[in-house]
Amino acid sequence: MMELFQVYFRxxxxxxxxxCGCGIEHRLHKSVxxxxxxMRDQYKVKLGDNYxxxxxxxxxxxxxxxxxxxxxxxxxxxxxxxxxxxxAQVDQxxxxxxxxxxxxxxxxxxxxxxxxxAQIHQEMDELSEANPGLVHRTQxxxxxxxxxxxxxxxxxxxxxxxxxxxxxxxxxxxxxxxNGAVSESVEKLLEGYQKKDPEMMEKVDNLEMWFVPMANxxxxxxxxxxxxxxxxNRSRHPGYEGxxxxxxxxxxxxxxxHGDVPKREGDxxxxxxxxxxxxxxxxxxxxxxxxxxxxxxxxxxxxLKGVLDVHGFGRMILFPxxxxxxxxxxxxxxxxxINAALDETKYTPLxxxxxxxxxxxxxxxxxxxxxxxMGLEIGTSFQPHPDKIDDITDRGSNAVIxxxxxxxxxxxxxxxxxxxx
Length: 421
Ligand SMILES: [Zn+2]
Hints:
By secondary structure, the chain is α/β, with parallel strands linked by helices. Zinc ion (ZN) binds next to loops.
């Protein structure tokens, strides 16, 4: 889920002309907006058995949330007990767990159940050792704070010879649910290959599959260790008072809507010019090391045919807004195919503009350069309870592999397709 709290804050600040019928917004609207309530000296959240003070900087936010005015920010005041926000499926307890920790200025104690950036890369390196000649690591750039950005190529032979596909994880720091699915799909492909599963052999033998399991390591580590609600990277730019750019608003594909003036904040749509906000688009397109690295990667590989951007959460299959009806119908068909590879829990197919207006996102850039370009939102909260991780990554990786399968179907000669045998 890309910008839930943006939606939330927008509702908070909008009093006028709300139509009934969309339950969630209405409830938020009623419970959150109380204009003339005095702010308390202190608010608290319950973490475990203890009541912990809300950090000073979040007090105004807490004041707006505290609908029953008891000084305690309860789960229901953070997010009413719903199973859906807009199109996104959400797990309210998991979602609010993380946010309460943010309000208290604590890290999410579940962080150590998720792999660190170093562990993610180590796991991939181990797969590489266990599968000689099949996994190749390439450094594609360096994060703002100097962490390496790695892409792993799965496949035989030299680069550039076979149709390519790129799967990216971790662009949004707080979306821990999304990351594991990328490395899990590598594991499944290699395991299937060892077992001579024809579907997996088809892909490993005939495609050039690239995986960037962690595209925003600085933000991810900050989200794990400091602010669980952190979404952006950790760059700083002269003249901008704030840290971090939303990487997935920084690509060279409609970087801003027509008429949106740089550095003016009142007219923001699709992303923000305010560096303190969650969706700060950056000073200019490709201002960020991380988005540059991925763009450069895509631009310099003419054999690349598809790109998939994995996020967490909402159980959605996303594709770019396109004007051509045939193209849109094609994306919807691919979404159906991905859904067919999942168990009974289906994802909602959506064109990204149906979700919310978006500028400068990676999926739009992929479409712009002619790739089959899609996104996944897996899981039902940013940081699901550890008991759910296996299930989410299992399902998510099945979706990833179904996308790769589509790239194979579109680009491989019939005799190389497993399902033709
Ligand atoms: Zn996201």
